[in-house]
Amino acid sequence: MSDLPIIKPRERDGVLQALRAGVVPKLGLQHIAVGRAGEIAQVLGDLARIADGGSSFRLVIGDYGAGKTFFLTMIRLAALEKRMVTMSADLSPERRLFATDGQARGLFAELSRSTATRTKPDGEALRSIVERFAGEVREQATAAGKPLKTVLQARLEPLTEMVFGYDFTNVVSTFVEAFDAGDDARAQAAVRWMRGEWATRTDARQALGVRTIIDDESVCDALKLYARFFRIAGYGGLLVNLDELVNLYKLNSTKSRQNNYEQILRMLNDVLQGGVEGLGLVLGGTPEFLLDTRRGLYSYAALRSRLEENAFARDGLVDLSGPVIRLGSLTPEDLFVLLRRIRRVFANDEHDGPDLPDEALEAFLDHCERRIGDAYFKTPRETIRAFVQLASVLEQNPGTQWNDLIDRVVVQRDEGAASDHVTEEDDELTELRL
User: Fold this and answer.
1) Are residues 377 and 243 in the same domain?
2) At what angle do helices 381-396 and 9-21 cross, to 10 degrees?
């Protein structure tokens, strides 16, 4: 165990608090990561390609509780370590890829607020990125004996050929001038434009003198623009994580679903055709979201033809080179290793940890299998949560024996999929109401 990384107290508390709640920790994931070696290797290759000026598109598919969010978070942390910028958001009825009432702009605003770097991993890093870039340009201008605005425009020149790239360069120039002049109100107005927070072109023009804004129709173009800007600013590129795409599957209107699927197709085509620089897109969804020929991505013929899996990848054979990554189940052996790692998180320099020998872990897994069958390792979220609760009781009640508690452990099936399933009859009734 000595070769394992040291667990910091903050990481310990963050991991255990998140696992007790059944959510993915934001800190310390490296201490509990198991399995997925092939999938992780493929994604690390994607990150290297992005850092080299290429692009990547991945659709991560898995059942509820199978580890999609965990996997996406691992990818995000790996991207930060490689000096990339990341953006992350969950789709919802208020946040979509395409809309006409502000939901797509709302998605971009959420993505921009989540902007993170290695030195600012918790988000809200967009302004600091621009400030850092402006500082570099000042140094460059001073060294060359040229006006700051001249050097700034030269650095941003590659963006002017992109959609609303010209206005973007003007907004960045406005921010730099306002920041240097101590005009925080005008600087903040520029930041609001970059975050997609201006609702109308009229308001943006009055505040900044620009003719365009990031709106419902331009989210995909904005992501491509920012990916190139971040590379100009010295970063390795942009990784965008979009989770909970099942919310598109649940849209009642067939037209709304198709419009959103068109945006996914557009992004996929841009990547496959090599028309994007320094952008990685990782989308998380359920098997129904992908495979349902009535409501899912497979209902859109152009997407189905691009996303269908390799016909030769059957009977234990895999092909992870395509855009779809199917997260298979953890094996019982993987889950045993995971429980050992969680046990280690409990025990660090300040804690002895619960009295849970390997024999107890085996007994716990046997109990889970008897309670809910193989769901305990196929969708292990509730199994992990129950184990953390058991370990917490043992840690806080010295002298309590694990074998007195095992049979009292209650493990629930993860019913997330059932609650979000849309029946054919429900769909037809809703379509009639529309």
Assistant:
1) no
2) 120
